[in-house]
Amino acid sequence: MMPVLPIQSIATTEECLHLGRLIVLTGPSGVGKGTLMRSLLERHPELYYSVSVTTRSPRPGEIDGKNYYFISRSKFEQLVAEGEFLEWAEFAGNYYGTPREAVLNQIHFGKLVVLEIELEGARQIRTSFPSAFSIFILPPSFDELEKRIRSRAQDSEEAIARRLLRAQEEIQAADEFDIQIVNDDFETALNDIETVLFK
Ligand SMILES: Nc1ncnc2c1ncn2[C@@H]1O[C@H](COP(=O)(O)OP(=O)(O)OP(=O)(O)O)[C@@H](O)[C@H]1O
Ligand SMILES: Nc1nc2c(ncn2[C@@H]2O[C@H](COP(=O)(O)O)[C@@H](O)[C@H]2O)c(=O)[nH]1
């Protein structure tokens, strides 16, 4: 299921940090992380985007292995027990996790690796990778955030309510991150991310 590169031994976390860099992109659901990420990858194909594993059902158009690896809760719990995740969390009723081996491989090879994950996972990464660079994406306002979640039209009312509740908690944690970027004008936000990553 998960991509495994032909590497004989995987470096430890600390060894990896000398070879590559880990970037964590976090922010409330609907703020535009995925959209920013897609544009960033188009402009910088040298980046490695870590495809997460989730127990959420695929949305229309989402492809297994591209957007996420979609698996059952029991399989996810088995992978947790086997230590297969670099971090994982439950978010709005579903599990999400970052495949450990693929990410460590890419860092080992000197890649700039980007994780797009929620707050609890980002906190776990800060503990295991203190040198990771963390970015928190903020909405211009809470009303605009709700509008964006609704405009996506892919979540039930219940899921939207859960995501908005969680968004309030997440936004309060924005100061824990190395940098905060407001995604108001899309191009400006994208340029701000590029500036901190590449300039
Ligand atoms: N700067 C922006 N101005 C207006 N709309 C935006 C902007 N950035 C993103 N959007 C829109 O907001 C909606 C949510 O964006 P997106 O799905 O990327 O959010 P997300 O943070 O990845 O959400 P999730 O964490 O739930 O996956 C999309 O319809 C997207 O087109
Ligand atoms: N802790 C983790 N969070 C993740 C991961 N992959 C995605 N996410 C975050 O989950 C929410 C919901 O995503 P959605 O696709 O259902 O809208 C969002 O904040 C994502 O950033 C992961 O591997 N670990």
From TrEMBL:
Parts forming coiled coils: none
Q: Which residues bind ATP?
A: 27-34
Tell me if Ubl conjugation is a UniProt keyword of this record.
no
Q: What is its main location?
A: cytoplasm
Q: Its catalytic activity?
A: GMP + ATP = GDP + ADP
- PROSITE patterns noted in UniProt: GUANYLATE_KINASE_1 (PS00856), GUANYLATE_KINASE_2 (PS50052)
Query: Which Pfam family, giving just one, matches this sequence?
Result: Guanylate_kin
Stated EC number for the protein is 2.7.4.8
UniProt keyword annotations, A-Z: ATP-binding, Cytoplasm, Kinase, Nucleotide-binding, Transferase
Top-level taxon of the source organism = Bacteria
Which Gene3D superfamilies does this one have?
Answer: Guanylate Kinase phosphate binding domain, P-loop containing nucleotide triphosphate hydrolases
SUPFAM superfamilies according to UniProt: P-loop containing nucleoside triphosphate hydrolases
All copies of the Guanylate kinase-like domain together span 20-198
Cellular compartment(s): Cytoplasm
For the keyword Cytoplasm, the answer is yes
Q: What's a Gene Ontology MF term here? A: GMP kinase activity
Q: Which PANTHER family match?
A: GUANYLATE KINASE, GUANYLATE KINASE-RELATED
Family, similarity comment: Belongs to the guanylate kinase family.
> HAMAP family this protein is in?
Guanylate_kinase
Its annotated function is as follows: Essential for recycling GMP and indirectly, cGMP.
The name this protein carries in UniProt is Guanylate kinase
Q: Which organism is it from?
A: Nostoc linckia FACHB-391
What gene name is listed for this protein? gmk
